[in-house]
Amino acid sequence: MLLRPVRDTQDDAETVRKLAEAAFGASHALKGDTPPNPPSAARAARSREKILHIVRHDPAGSWLAEDRTGQAIGVAQSHIREGTWGLALLAVLPGVQGKGVGSALLQRTLEYGRGCLRGIICCSRHPAAARVYRQAGFALHPTIRMRGVVDRAGLGKVEGAAVEGGPRDRDLLDSVDRRLRGGAHGPDHDFLLRHHRLVVADDLAGSGYCYIGDDSDGAKVALLGATSRRLATRVLSAALLGVGEGVAVEVHDITAEQQWAVDVGLRAGLELRAEGFVCFRGLRPPTPYIPSGAFL
Asked: What is the pTM of this model?
């Protein structure tokens, strides 16, 4: 097995995308979940853009594993934002899982972040992944996933002002990030703003934001942070109410500390299920906060 950096090319981005799609598709089947729909051309392009975004900002944090024939069999991507390290992706082809590929890739990304005091990983329910992350010194916090069509009457009106956000809100976003997770997301907000709707709230009581995106599978909350539960409830409620009629929405990676989010989901009529883990090292679970799977 050879480990090499992911190159800043469309070919490497497509290799990573297809490898992750194969690995996660097999993981869904293993857990008995319904396989995801094949990605649209637009969704595949967005995935490649995200892969290359991480490569360009953290070239030493992205690695491919290849077998003796040069076939890609595993990938890991990580990034560092103001001293906070995050694992954006770890995927291994089903046929070579359990042979040390994932551990080798994780170790290479951990070496990249060895100077960071804080680390975050969003982990699936796959038992092997949870074991590897725990052995690496991360605390595992079980999570909830919420999904369904929003019951607008049950959710009710938003209490307080929540408005459409944009690039002008970067200072607000970075300030909230630093308070909650010790480091701003920085350039990752540029990617999120291109592909998601942003809802912000900012008043004398504090600040909050929520990204939500739409695709062929429905809508999904991508990242949320706020300085209080009240502000978090406001921006999440406003984001859910902004989803089109009859569109299914998902909210992932809700830890036990985020009961305010569970309350919003229950009022909105969303179904709850146990999902995976959010893993932390060097910090307690930020709250009120819902991480992004890739940008954490």
From this structure: 0.94
The model's pLDDT over 177-232, given as tens digits with 9 standing for 90+, comes to 999 999 999 999 999 999 999 999 999 989 999 999 986 679 999 999 999 999 99
CATH classification of the domain holding 249: 3.40.630.90
Q: How far is CA 232 from CA 93, 195, 265, in A?
A: 38, 21, 12
Q: Which amino acid is at 56?
A: R
Over the Cα atoms of the chain, what is R_g? 19
> Are both 105 and 190 inside the same structural domain?
no
- CATH number of the domain encompassing residue 70: 3.40.630.30
**Domain containing residue 258:** 145-275
Residue 286 gets which letter from DSSP? P
Could you count the other beta carbons within 10 Å of the beta carbon of residue 152? Answer: 14
**Tens digit of pLDDT for each residue in 18-59?**
999 999 885 544 445 565 678 889 999 999 999 999 999 999
Instruction: Indicate if the alpha-carbon torsion angle 159, 198, 271, 144 is positive or negative.
Output: negative
